[in-house]
Structure formats: structure tokens, C-alpha cells
């Protein structure tokens, strides 16, 4: 059954790894509505170009409503979550059951994806290394790198039309010129931080512009290996 996120909820299948016992699980030190969690998850999965989303929760099939969400009377047998989807890094399967409520475990996955995406702009795990522990198939191929330009700003750095278009979008919201963004890693990072703050949906931006920003960053960051 589908939610507004186009995320299919279904009874949990095989959990990757060992599940925690009830005594090992903790109370989450954060709170958020399921609606807010799905909003964040939609944002982060959009950046990963995720599709065919399936979320396994430990309920009976009869406990899921027509809109895909659990009915008010549904009782989870455990708080374990298994999130599966195709992504730009291949097929990923993420299982998590640290917290006592499944909603909090889903929130934790969304927050972790957010942290990985934010770290990736600096080149940490930029080729998908951070996601490979969740790969359910062969490791995804590494993106082809392009030759890095000189670190000093160049008035006319070599760039493809797609790179220049991405740099112009980033410059529009990031306080730097396209040439600075294309030629200098520090300028690129500064522009990303400013644009990310400006375009984030929680700060008045749109989901579409934020996803466009992340795709622009994915395209440009290979210039600075």
C-alpha cells in the first residue's frame, strides 16, 4: 500500500543482521510526527534518486489502512524497520531497531541519510562508500571522475554545459560567481552551505529546488577529488 511519499508499507520481512531484544532497545532522545519524518525522508530519498521504495514494519497486513499508513489500532510486534529502495548507488536495504518505537527508528534512518548527504559535499564518501554496507547486491560502480582544475580561481575554467548550468544555479543562491564555484573548492563549499540553508524546505525553500541543488552538487563535486 502506498503513502503520499510513494513509499510502500508492508509487513516486515527478513531483517538484515541480528535484531535487538526488548531490553536492548532505548528511548529516542528526539520526537517528531510521522508526517515530518516522511517529509524529511522524501527529501533525502529524492537526493539519492530513490525509486521502488518499500518499508517493512512489524505489523500484520490487515493493520495497514487504504492510504498505506498503520491503522490507529495497529500494534507493532517490534519496532524494527527495514527500508529498501533502488538508488543511484544501487539497491539498498537498511534495517534499524535501536529505539522502542518504529516511528523513531524510521526517523533515525532519515536523519542518518541527511548526515551522510551533508558530509558528502566535502568528498567524504562521495563515491557511495558510506552506503555500501547497505548494498543488497554487488557494490555500485564508482562515478567517473573528471580532471580537477587548478585550485586557484580561474576567470574562465573549463566546464561542460551541464556543469556551468549547475554552477549558475548554485551561484544564484550561494553568494559566489559561477567561475569561482567551478574553479575553487572553498568557494564551492561556501556556496553549497549558503544555498542549502536558503533552499531547505524547512526554511521556506521547495522540495524541487532542494533536490536540484543536491544534483548540482553531485555533478560539481567531482571537480575537487
What labels describe this entry?
225 residues; alpha+beta; 2 domains; 4-stranded mixed beta sheet
Short description:
By secondary structure, this protein is an alpha+beta fold. The protein contains six helices and four strands.
**Gyration radius over CA:** 20 Å
Number of domains: 2
Uncertain regions spanning at least 5 consecutive residues: 137-156
Give the overall silhouette: elongated
Mean pLDDT comes to: 79
The largest beta-sheet arranges its strands as 1-2-3-4
**What proportion of the residues form beta strands (DSSP E)?**
5-15%
Q: What share of residues is helical?
A: 25-40%
The assembly state of the depicted protein chains is: single chain
Number of strands: 4
| Largest sheet report | 4 strands, mixed
Structural class: alpha+beta
Textual characterization of the structure:
The chain folds into two domains: 7-134, no CATH class; 161-223. With 225 residues, it is α+β, with helices and mostly antiparallel strands. The protein is built from six helices and four strands; from the N terminus they run βαβββααααα. The relative contact order is 0.13. It has a four-stranded mixed sheet, with helices on one face. It starts with 6 loop residues before the first strand and ends in a 5-residue tail after the last helix.
Amino acid at each position: 500500500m502506498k503513502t503520499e511519499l510513494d513509499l510502500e508499507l508492508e509487513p516486515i520481512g527478513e531483517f538484515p543482521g541480528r535484531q535487538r531484544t526488548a531490553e536492548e532497545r532505548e528511548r529516542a532522545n528526539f520526537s517528531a510526527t510521522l508526517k515530518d519524518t516522511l517529509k524529511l525522508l522524501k527529501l533525502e530519498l529524492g537526493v539519492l534518486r530513490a525509486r521502488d521504495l518499500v518499508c517493512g514494519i512489524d505489523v500484520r497486513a490487515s493493520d495497514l489502512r487504504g492510504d498505506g499508513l498503520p491503522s490507529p489500532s495497529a500494534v507493532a510486534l517490534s519496532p524494527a524497520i527495514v527500508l529498501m529502495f533502488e538508488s543511484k548507488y544501487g539497491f539498498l536495504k537498511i534495517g534499524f531497531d535501536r529505539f522502542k518505537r518504529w516511528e523513531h527508528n524510521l526517523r533515525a534512518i532519515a536523519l542518518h541519510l541527511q548526515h551522510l548527504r551533508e558530509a558528502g559535499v566535502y568528498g567524504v564518501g562521495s563515491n557511495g562508500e558510506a552506503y555500501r554496507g547497505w548494498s543488497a547486491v554487488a557494490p555500485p560502480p564508482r562515478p567517473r571522475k573528471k580532471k580537477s582544475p587548478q585550485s586557484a580561481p580561474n576567470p574562465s575554467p573549463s566546464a561542460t554545459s551541464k556543469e556551468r548550468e549547475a554552477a549558475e544555479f548554485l551561484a544564484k543562491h550561494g553568494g559566489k560567481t559561477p567561475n569561482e564555484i567551478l574553479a575553487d573548492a572553498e568557494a564551492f563549499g561556501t556556496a553549497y552551505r549558503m544555498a542549502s540553508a536558503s533552499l531547505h524546505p524547512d526554511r521556506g525553500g521547495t522540495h524541487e529546488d532542494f533536490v536540484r541543488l543536491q544534483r548540482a552538487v553531485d555533478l560539481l563535486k567531482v571537480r575537487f577529488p
